[in-house]
Amino acid sequence: MNTETNISLRHIARVILPVFIATALFDAMFWDMHIGASFGVFFAGIALLILGLHQRTRPRSQTLLFVTMLAVSCWQSAVQLSLSNGIACTGLALALAGTVLQPNLIGLWERITEVFYGLATSFPRWFGLAGSAIRSAGDVSVLRFNIVKTLTKAAWVLAPAIVLLMIFTAVLSSGNSVFSLWLQHVDSIAVHFWEQLNLTPVRFLMWGFVATVALGIFHGKLAPEYPRWWIFTFPRVPRPDFKLAALQSGVALAALNALFFIVNTIDAVYLWQSSEPPLGVNRSEFVHDGVNSLICAVVLSGIVIAGIFQQEDRVANNRWLKSLSHLWSLQNCVLIAGCFKRLSFYTHDYGLTTKRIHVAFFLILVAAGFALLAWFVQKRRTFNWLLGTNAVATFLLFFTIQFTDTAKWVARYNVGRWEKDPKKILDVHYLASLGPGAWPELIRIASRSSDSSTTQIAKSYIFRIASENPDNDWRATQTRRATAMELIKDYASKHEPPPTDTSGPMQENQRD
Description:
Blueprint: H1 3-30, H2 37-52, H3 61-79, H4 83-101, H5 108-120, H6 122-140, H7 147-175, H8 177-196, H9 201-217, H10 242-273, H11 283-308, H12 313-316, H13 319-350, H14 354-379, H15 383-401, H16 406-420, H17 428-433, H18 439-446, H19 453-466, H20 479-494
Helix pairs in contact: 1-2, 1-6, 1-9, 2-3, 2-4, 3-4, 4-5, 4-15, 5-9, 6-9, 7-8, 10-13, 11-13, 11-14, 13-14, 14-15, 16-18, 18-19, 19-20
């Protein structure tokens, strides 16, 4: 076998093997199954495949960091699967793939985008792989040994043994009932295995799709030495008349600072001091409807500051411009605090929802963005740095909130608020739609001595949940759900169900 053929065959094997394993793992974990711990097992398997292709060099510190964070996220999927957990696992797996499979690239952005490029070009890569296989097959045909002859000789060698085994197995099974029972058991296992394969067109399409995605990751091609077209540094905006540019920017920042000062002063009087809007302004509109517009204003402010300080250094290094920018950033932070205050008022009046918690998370992210923006302005960082650090901050937010149980927070707050003031409305239908995190609070409501409609609805939901047939397969394991289900089963076993089911359909509540 010549050297070029040997290298080509090894390359094909190094590509096909991880693609096959990834496809088989996806099928075993997800096909016709409820997702739970299987999600983490799948991504752990992908990480092992990636690390198995690691070059025999000392791993980067980033590699160890990504492996650790991915391991924690995979474990969390067995505790409670969520959108943030899925984003964290996917993002970390792609970052790990870029770090390990593209060691020739330096920056994290370059490595991750190369993985995305591989995914985008995954389907055409099949043709290149097939071409390599055909060329290798042509070379193999002229090698010193003939594969076909070798296989034929092996068949002739094994044929007598196979025939004799079949004859004596049939004879011995008729004379030994235990041996016959074993054969029947093996036969039933084989038949059951074949029936469980469920080889449908949809499954074949799924295999093809997953294998194509896996090929985009494990294609085995290093990025070229020259940078891709998307790897560039955003240029500074040239301004021929830099004095005019500085004057325009300064006037704009001063005017916007004045406008935001007026808005923040209004909030200081009517939001922070009196907590009540002036006559003619609806309280709901003041504390709730304005949040979206204020968030839009804050985000737009960040874009404007970034744009102003993307001008050339002669403009952006102006000390007064930096001071006005920092003042405006500070006023935006005050505006963000006002959004938090509005959310707290609306939550006090109408209860807590998961959407309001997510808005609070987003506001925290925006505040962190302004801190990065201030550093960008003061230290004259590049726009690439600003985008990259904000992307990392966004990912860290998703990585963090995957461990939170927002449904539990919402349910506990709303039930406690209702217990303090029974006149307030408690939306039990919404609590039930939140899932396992809210189930202990349903039990808390149903355990109250009062026989109100609220307790009856809670009892109806409890018995409906208790009557569900959970998937006991380990792949669907989620410990938070299992623990909450034990509480539900225990309550249902000790109490009588309500006479009628008053719970209604369990639908996701769409309140803001």
